[in-house]
Amino acid sequence: MINYPIKRKKQEKTNNRANLGMTLEGDIESTNQYYLNANIAVIHKKPTPIQVVNVSYPARNKAKIVEAYYKTPSTTDFNGLYKGRYIDFDAKETNSKTSMPLKNIHSHQIEHLRHVDKHGGIAFLIVHFKQFDEYFILPSHVLFKYWDLQYDEKKGRKSIPYSAFKNEAYPIQFSYSPRLDYLKVIDTYYFAKK
Questions:
Q1: What is the rounded CA–CA span in Å between residue 43 and residue 178?
Q2: So where are the chain's domains?
Q3: For residues 88 and 113, is the Cβ–Cβ distance under 8 A?
Q4: Given pLDDT bands bounded at 50, 70 and 90, which one contains residue 98?
Q5: DSSP code of 19?
Q6: Which of 134, 133, 120, 108 is nearest to 190 (CA)?
Q7: Is the pTM of this model over 0.85?
Protein backbone atom coordinates (compact mmCIF):
# COMPACT_ATOMS: atom_id res chain seq x y z
CA MET A 1 0.00 0.00 0.00
CA ILE A 2 1.30 3.44 -0.90
CA ASN A 3 0.77 6.26 1.59
CA TYR A 4 0.51 9.46 -0.38
CA PRO A 5 1.33 12.69 1.49
CA ILE A 6 -2.12 14.07 0.72
CA LYS A 7 -3.80 11.13 2.45
CA ARG A 8 -1.62 11.54 5.55
CA LYS A 9 -2.36 15.25 5.79
CA LYS A 10 -6.07 14.60 5.46
CA GLN A 11 -5.93 12.08 8.29
CA GLU A 12 -4.17 14.54 10.60
CA LYS A 13 -6.77 17.21 9.91
CA THR A 14 -9.70 14.99 10.84
CA ASN A 15 -8.09 14.08 14.16
CA ASN A 16 -7.15 17.62 15.15
CA ARG A 17 -9.99 19.80 16.37
CA ALA A 18 -7.76 22.88 16.10
CA ASN A 19 -8.61 22.80 12.41
CA LEU A 20 -12.17 23.88 13.11
CA GLY A 21 -11.04 27.28 11.86
CA MET A 22 -11.22 29.03 15.19
CA THR A 23 -8.67 30.72 17.39
CA LEU A 24 -9.00 30.95 21.16
CA GLU A 25 -10.66 34.35 20.81
CA GLY A 26 -12.89 33.01 18.05
CA ASP A 27 -13.93 30.09 20.25
CA ILE A 28 -14.74 32.49 23.08
CA GLU A 29 -16.70 34.78 20.76
CA SER A 30 -18.66 31.77 19.48
CA THR A 31 -19.35 30.73 23.08
CA ASN A 32 -20.45 34.27 23.97
CA GLN A 33 -22.86 34.28 21.02
CA TYR A 34 -24.28 30.98 22.27
CA TYR A 35 -24.73 32.53 25.76
CA LEU A 36 -26.45 35.57 24.26
CA ASN A 37 -28.78 33.51 22.01
CA ALA A 38 -29.71 31.23 24.92
CA ASN A 39 -30.28 34.26 27.21
CA ILE A 40 -27.61 33.03 29.63
CA ALA A 41 -25.27 36.05 29.70
CA VAL A 42 -24.26 39.20 27.84
CA ILE A 43 -20.50 39.12 27.25
CA HIS A 44 -18.74 40.80 24.34
CA LYS A 45 -15.27 41.37 22.95
CA LYS A 46 -14.24 44.96 23.52
CA PRO A 47 -13.18 46.95 20.47
CA THR A 48 -9.69 48.44 20.62
CA PRO A 49 -9.95 52.24 20.68
CA ILE A 50 -8.24 53.90 17.71
CA GLN A 51 -7.51 57.47 16.66
CA VAL A 52 -8.16 58.07 12.97
CA VAL A 53 -5.49 60.39 11.54
CA ASN A 54 -6.00 60.33 7.78
CA VAL A 55 -9.02 59.46 5.64
CA SER A 56 -9.04 59.18 1.85
CA TYR A 57 -12.19 59.92 -0.16
CA PRO A 58 -11.69 58.26 -3.59
CA ALA A 59 -15.41 58.71 -4.22
CA ARG A 60 -18.10 60.64 -2.43
CA ASN A 61 -19.60 57.55 -0.76
CA LYS A 62 -16.37 55.56 -0.30
CA ALA A 63 -14.35 56.90 2.62
CA LYS A 64 -11.23 54.86 3.40
CA ILE A 65 -9.17 55.08 6.59
CA VAL A 66 -5.56 55.44 5.47
CA GLU A 67 -3.83 56.04 8.78
CA ALA A 68 -4.91 55.27 12.36
CA TYR A 69 -3.22 54.62 15.70
CA TYR A 70 -4.23 52.94 18.93
CA LYS A 71 -5.40 55.67 21.33
CA THR A 72 -4.54 54.01 24.61
CA PRO A 73 -3.49 50.51 25.59
CA SER A 74 -6.52 48.27 25.66
CA THR A 75 -7.53 46.79 29.01
CA THR A 76 -8.78 43.23 28.56
CA ASP A 77 -10.52 41.51 25.65
CA PHE A 78 -13.91 40.55 27.09
CA ASN A 79 -16.47 41.90 29.55
CA GLY A 80 -20.14 41.59 30.34
CA LEU A 81 -22.81 40.49 32.80
CA TYR A 82 -23.69 37.09 34.17
CA LYS A 83 -26.23 36.46 36.96
CA GLY A 84 -26.05 40.13 37.95
CA ARG A 85 -22.25 40.11 38.27
CA TYR A 86 -19.74 41.96 36.12
CA ILE A 87 -17.25 39.67 34.36
CA ASP A 88 -13.97 40.86 32.85
CA PHE A 89 -11.24 38.66 31.39
CA ASP A 90 -8.54 38.26 28.80
CA ALA A 91 -7.59 35.31 26.60
CA LYS A 92 -3.99 34.10 26.38
CA GLU A 93 -2.31 31.22 24.54
CA THR A 94 1.07 29.63 25.04
CA ASN A 95 3.10 27.11 23.05
CA SER A 96 5.15 26.21 26.10
CA LYS A 97 4.71 22.86 27.86
CA THR A 98 6.08 24.18 31.15
CA SER A 99 4.62 27.65 31.74
CA MET A 100 2.83 30.76 30.53
CA PRO A 101 5.24 33.70 30.21
CA LEU A 102 4.26 36.76 32.22
CA LYS A 103 5.45 38.90 29.30
CA ASN A 104 2.21 37.82 27.55
CA ILE A 105 0.34 39.99 30.06
CA HIS A 106 0.65 43.77 30.20
CA SER A 107 0.83 45.82 33.39
CA HIS A 108 -2.21 47.92 32.39
CA GLN A 109 -4.22 44.68 32.09
CA ILE A 110 -3.19 43.63 35.60
CA GLU A 111 -4.10 47.07 36.95
CA HIS A 112 -7.50 46.87 35.25
CA LEU A 113 -8.20 43.34 36.58
CA ARG A 114 -7.19 44.46 40.10
CA HIS A 115 -9.79 47.25 39.91
CA VAL A 116 -12.47 44.82 38.69
CA ASP A 117 -11.63 42.38 41.49
CA LYS A 118 -11.55 45.13 44.13
CA HIS A 119 -15.04 46.28 43.15
CA GLY A 120 -16.60 42.80 43.31
CA GLY A 121 -16.40 41.81 39.66
CA ILE A 122 -15.25 38.40 38.48
CA ALA A 123 -11.78 38.83 36.95
CA PHE A 124 -9.72 36.07 35.38
CA LEU A 125 -7.74 34.85 32.37
CA ILE A 126 -8.67 32.06 30.01
CA VAL A 127 -5.42 30.35 29.10
CA HIS A 128 -4.90 27.78 26.36
CA PHE A 129 -1.86 25.48 26.57
CA LYS A 130 -1.63 24.65 22.88
CA GLN A 131 0.82 21.75 23.31
CA PHE A 132 -1.64 19.88 25.56
CA ASP A 133 -4.79 21.39 24.03
CA GLU A 134 -5.94 22.29 27.54
CA TYR A 135 -7.94 25.33 28.59
CA PHE A 136 -8.01 26.90 32.05
CA ILE A 137 -9.63 29.73 33.96
CA LEU A 138 -6.84 31.35 35.95
CA PRO A 139 -8.50 33.24 38.83
CA SER A 140 -7.30 36.78 39.42
CA HIS A 141 -5.84 36.06 42.88
CA VAL A 142 -3.53 33.39 41.38
CA LEU A 143 -2.55 35.70 38.52
CA PHE A 144 -1.78 38.55 40.96
CA LYS A 145 0.32 36.24 43.15
CA TYR A 146 2.60 35.27 40.25
CA TRP A 147 2.63 38.78 38.80
CA ASP A 148 3.81 40.20 42.14
CA LEU A 149 6.46 37.45 42.49
CA GLN A 150 8.26 38.66 39.37
CA TYR A 151 9.19 41.81 41.32
CA ASP A 152 10.35 39.91 44.41
CA GLU A 153 14.16 40.08 44.48
CA LYS A 154 14.50 36.58 45.99
CA LYS A 155 11.74 34.75 44.12
CA GLY A 156 11.64 36.72 40.85
CA ARG A 157 9.47 34.86 38.32
CA LYS A 158 9.16 35.29 34.59
CA SER A 159 6.26 32.88 34.10
CA ILE A 160 3.39 31.02 35.71
CA PRO A 161 4.30 27.32 35.83
CA TYR A 162 2.05 24.73 34.21
CA SER A 163 1.81 23.04 37.63
CA ALA A 164 0.06 26.17 38.97
CA PHE A 165 -2.60 25.75 36.31
CA LYS A 166 -3.06 22.09 37.26
CA ASN A 167 -3.26 22.93 41.00
CA GLU A 168 -4.76 26.42 41.25
CA ALA A 169 -6.69 27.05 38.01
CA TYR A 170 -9.93 25.53 36.77
CA PRO A 171 -10.06 23.39 33.61
CA ILE A 172 -12.55 24.23 30.86
CA GLN A 173 -13.82 21.43 28.66
CA PHE A 174 -13.85 21.99 24.90
CA SER A 175 -17.08 20.92 23.20
CA TYR A 176 -19.09 21.57 20.08
CA SER A 177 -21.69 23.98 21.47
CA PRO A 178 -20.74 26.00 23.34
CA ARG A 179 -17.10 25.55 22.43
CA LEU A 180 -15.65 26.69 25.77
CA ASP A 181 -18.35 26.62 28.43
CA TYR A 182 -16.42 28.81 30.85
CA LEU A 183 -19.59 29.96 32.65
CA LYS A 184 -20.13 26.38 33.84
CA VAL A 185 -16.75 26.72 35.55
CA ILE A 186 -17.70 30.17 36.92
CA ASP A 187 -20.87 28.61 38.38
CA THR A 188 -18.88 25.89 40.11
CA TYR A 189 -16.06 27.97 41.56
CA TYR A 190 -17.54 31.45 42.00
CA PHE A 191 -21.28 31.10 42.58
CA ALA A 192 -21.33 27.75 44.44
CA LYS A 193 -19.12 29.24 47.20
CA LYS A 194 -21.70 31.87 48.18
A1: 14
A2: 40-46+73-191
A3: yes
A4: very high
A5: G
A6: 120
A7: no
Long-range contacts of the stretch 52-57 (C-beta < 8 A, 24+): none
Q: How many CA atoms lie within 13 A of 27 on its CB side?
A: 26
Give the residue among 174, 186, 154 at the shortest CA–CA distance from 89: 186
If pLDDT is split at 50, 70 and 90, which confidence band does 17 have? Answer: very low
Task: Please give the sequence-ordered ranges of beta strands (E in DSSP) within the chain, or none if there are none.
Answer: 42-45, 50-59, 62-70, 78-82, 85-94, 99-101, 122-129, 134-139, 159-161, 170-172
Reading phi first (left if > 0) and then psi (alpha if -120 to 50, else beta), residue 80 is in left
For 40-46+73-191, CATH gives: 3.40.1350.10
Can you tell me the distance from the alpha carbon of 173 to that of 163, in angstroms, rounded to the nearest whole number?
Answer: 18
Helix (H, G, I), strand (E, B) or coil at 80: strand
The average confidence (pLDDT) of the chain is 85
Contact 170, 188 (CB under 8 A): yes
